[in-house]
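Notebook entry, structure prediction.
Reason for the run: the old model in the group folder had no record of what sequence produced it. Starting over properly, with the input documented here first.
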Amino acid sequence: MHVGENLYTAPDPALRSAMRPRDPPGRRATCLALALACTPQSPAQTPPGRDDEVRVQHQPLADADLARLDAVLAARTPLYWRLRTADGPRCEPWTPEPDPEDPRRGRLLHAADGARYSFTYRLADGHLRLADPTRERDTPIAATALTPTGVAAGTVTLALTYPCVFTGMSLAPADAAAARRLVLSSHERWFLDEAACTAAGPDEDPLPDSPGELHPLGCASALADPQARTRADPRPPGPAATRLRAAKRLFQLRARDGRPTCELWHHTADERPGEGHLERSARDEHGAFAIRYDYAALGDTLTLLGPHELRRVRTATGPADLTRTAGCLLTRPLAQRKHALLVGADPWFLTRRACEAARKTTAPRPDPDCRPGHVPEASP
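New structure, fully documented this time:
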């Protein structure tokens, strides 16, 4: 029984992923969860004749690597994801399950800690594209809870479909009839064999184009954070999330230009309990811009998606809205403290006075990040 799906839309609808997942064979019952972030925006109707430009930051796979990838998929031998962890890089095997009618489509599967993780994959135009990040767990249930739906006695499969947002850039002219420019990119490094993954050089931004190395487009970053993978099944928002919902402003202690600064973030709660977004305004040598994170509070955890950078720029053909978005999906414990909310080890102060008092004795925290070279935060 397939209950539904949950997809996330970036602030620019052009960066949206809307690939419908297929039911995995043998699924008996499904509970889909994690409604995250703001209400998805409906994409504007594309004017007749408009031809948007879509490019990829990375070069297509070389013919030799493409042939090797085809062979790996056909033989169902693992691909290896080089994950950045607090203990250093780790090479994780993902086994292909190709579509019988088209080996360039199917699912990539990884099992760990009693859970099964998967992406749907598609190989097209020399790029591996990943979508529909999902976690499945077989959970015992009491016999009295069984219903006449064919569920195996004593167990039910709970499936969590994670949100997806592309990593990339969109340049949308003020004229809705003008062509939109999209550039897709990737933060993740996958390899055709374990030895190449283990021997790979340090993570860099932008990622290098190296033989045997894949940079999947789409939703790969959704399963890059260990705490996002293992977070508990959804529960009603807890007391700390209730306090967050009531806040209009929050202050985060950050290091800017070599000194600690209390940054103001405006908070907007969504209509759905436990959801909303944070946004701050800033200025650099290129002008004014805004940074935005979307979030969902589930019990005593907070899941962040972003960041999204939004700015208005001038081009040769006139003004345009530039959106840069990173597909980070980060889950951290959420707790309430006096004058602050604790997100992992990062205090979000409820008043400027509390932030300024802490600035004298507390080291600034780094921004949440999923780019190459970033070390994920361990649970406090």
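Summary: DSSP finds five helices and 20 strands in the chain.
The old model has been moved to the deprecated folder.
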